[in-house]
Amino acid sequence: MAYRIFLAGASGAIGQRLVPQLLAAHHQVTGTTRSADKAARLEVLGVEPVVVDVFDAKSLSRAMLAARPDIVVHQLTDLPAGLDPSRMAEAVVRNARIREEGTRNLVAAAAAAGVRRMVAQSIAWAYAPGPEPHAEADPLDGAASGNRGISVGGVIALETAVLDAPFAGIILRYGQLYGPGTGADTPGGASPVHVDAAAYAALLALDKGVPGIFNIAEPNEAVTTRKAAEELGWRADFRLPA
């Protein structure tokens, strides 16, 4: 079934790999970006671009109402290109704000527009210390301090807002991304996932899986991805054609 999709963060690392999958599946896509230049590139691809700041709640709500989406896909982040270590300390704070305030605005706009489902990006390395591999029901590390505490706090706020919304909420806890646009060409971290496979999970979650949380990563010892494979039909080896 084809849907009207509101893709928040269409020009980001996952958004860029998700757009061709959505269009190939015949979905109508409205994509947000904060850059007029990136909006022009989205339009060339076949996306209806919207230049909007997620922190501008009124403008975001107007854009959502105009798009009349069936489903919102939340792929918003605020991270430096290539995850530049010299810029990550300030980026952690900005990214946590996106996850908390930005998600709150996105959920409110989606609810006002009568959206039926939201698929939102989270992370798979926010679990509290404990036996591994972590399953989705395991607690997050809410007691963390420093930059990790800021990051996990943003994750908890995002997931709570989406799961408590008046529509079906799907949370995708992505592992450490690699591949085009991520700044990493090869797998890294405890639970890596290729950006194409991460985007593929969002495509599947449009109409598969009951509301809840799914770990999205390649086979590893840190988190289990059995739920995503069984309920979404997700494959970690998915890649876009070269």
Structure in words:
It contains seven helices and nine strands. The chain has helices at 13-24, 36-45, 57-67, 88-112, 146-163, 195-204, 226-232, and strands spanning 4-8, 28-33, 48-51, 71-74, 117-123, 168-174, 176-178, 192-194, 212-216. It has a seven-stranded parallel β-sheet with strand order 3-2-1-4-5-6-9, sandwiched between helices. It has a two-stranded parallel ribbon with strand order 7-8. Helix 5 links the parallel strand 5 (117-123) and strand 6 (168-174). The protein starts with a strand and ends in a 10-residue tail after the last helix.
Globular, elongated, flat, extended or rod-shaped: what is the shape? globular
Strand order across the biggest sheet?
Answer: 3-2-1-4-5-6-9
Largest sheet composition: 7 strands, parallel
Number of strands: 9
How big is the Rg?
16 Å
Quaternary:
single chain
Number of helices: 7
SSE blueprint and pairings:
Blueprint: E1 4-8, H1 13-24, E2 28-33, H2 36-45, E3 48-51, H3 57-67, E4 71-74, H4 88-112, E5 117-123, H5 146-163, E6 168-174, E7 176-178, E8 192-194, H6 195-204, E9 212-216, H7 226-232
Parallel strand pairs: 1-2, 1-4, 2-3, 4-5, 5-6, 6-9, 7-8
Helix pairs in contact: 1-6, 3-4, 4-5
In short:
With 242 residues, the chain is α/β, with parallel strands linked by helices.
List keywords for this structure.
242 residues, seven-stranded parallel β-sheet, alpha/beta
